[in-house]
Amino acid sequence: MATSSADYRLSFPHMGNYHIPMCTLSSMLDCEIMVAPKMTRRTLELGVRHSPEFVCIPFKYNLGNFIETLDAGANLLVQAGGGCRFGFYAEVQEEILRSLGYEFDMIRLVGDFDLRKYYQDLRRINPKLSFRGALHHYRLAARQTRALDAVEDFMRKRSGFEAEPGSFDAVHERFLRELGPTPSIAEAAALEERTLAELAALPVEMPVDALRVGVVGELYVLMEPFSNFFVERELAKRGVEVHRFVTVSDMLSHAGPKGSAHLRELIEDAGPYLKYHVGAHGTESVAMTRRLMQAGFDGVLHLKPFGCMPEVNAMAALQRLSRDNTFPVLFFSYDGQTSETGVRTRLEAFCDMLRMRKRAGVSAATNMEVPA
């Protein structure tokens, strides 16, 4: 459609704060980058209105984001895919958007993002792009992602115990402002180290018997807080140490040839509850829940979009694991009709129940070590 990179205005769906490294990655195309507006109820309503009724809710959020940015002037969209029905998002969304009259180009990143696979496609947008330049952008974006995930992991574990309300958020917001402009891998690493030290220095009031809860499930609903009604923040408000293992950094670390070995390890850790890979992150949901149970965690939240088949398959194993070990697992399934009030009410009751169990000395702990 456009004749040169300068004619393009690129956009992509929101997912947590990953738009920061995504902007770094997209800058290799030397075109205007339009960050989609943060998720709102309108985003979901737009997506629901124009999506197939029973498609999973991440599809609807993504489609709503695309409509918002196309209306604002974007003409080049980026969509990833792989693992489950996510692999077909780009084709279906492109057909829907074109049927609505939008004109645009789309970059589809299906499966592992291998620069060698997509380099020629990227050069069609920016003919001046060298492979060395593309590799620099990719490595910098990957390092920014690692910094982002490390800082937000620390936040999940400690922010619920801050002695000064808002102190963790203030450091986090400053970190997000400084992360995008980092020009080198070394500076991104230095920013991570500096921010973690600053967070560690903040005063906390953490009881020795603080609740520890893991969060597992489908990747988008885990990583886009608006889509799950900010359950991690709600847990922190209730004085809970939160652990989540599905991040973009984790996905990158197990991409390519390393993925097979990682999958075998997950199936082994899932023990008697799974014998085969159930797709996407469903196997990881079971394996991580069993690891957390054996490490003495107090409970687990399982989050999924309504109708997500890999996580539906995982649920049967998780329910049996929970019954066999009297280990609390709370299931949340999200669609366009999910009530935020209902989620918060169930979450509060779950935390109350965990505290009663802890006071009564009920535990499923063994000596298995939980990942950092």
Explain this structure to me?
This protein is of the alpha/beta class and 372 residues long. The chain folds into three domains: 124 residues, 3-Layer(aba) Sandwich (Rossmann fold), CATH 3.40.50; 68 residues; 165 residues, 3-Layer(aba) Sandwich (Rossmann fold), CATH 3.40.50.11900. 52% of the residues lie in helices and 11% in strands. It contains 15 helices and eight strands. α2 crosses α3, α6 packs antiparallel against α7 and α7 packs antiparallel against α8. The radius of gyration is 21 Å and the shape is globular. The N and C termini lie far apart (47 Å).
Sheet/helix structural class: alpha/beta
Can you give the helix content as a percent range? 40-55%
Total domain units: 3
Q: What is the distance, rounded to the nearest whole angstrom, between the alpha carbons of the first and last residues?
A: 47 Å
Order of SSEs, N→C? Answer: EHEHHEHEHHHHEHHEHHHEHEH
Q: What spatial order of strands do you see in the largest sheet? A: 2-1-3-4
Name the poorly predicted regions: 365-372
Shape: globular
Largest sheet: 4 strands, parallel
Q: Say how many strands there are.
A: 8
Summarize model confidence as the mean pLDDT.
93
**Which architecture of the largest domain would the CATH scheme give at its second level?**
3-Layer(aba) Sandwich
**How much of the residues is beta strand, in percent?**
5-15%
Q: Over the alpha carbons, how many angstroms does the gyration radius reach?
A: 21 Å
CATH topology-level fold name of the largest domain: Rossmann fold
Number of helices: 15
- The CATH class of the largest domain turns out to be Alpha Beta
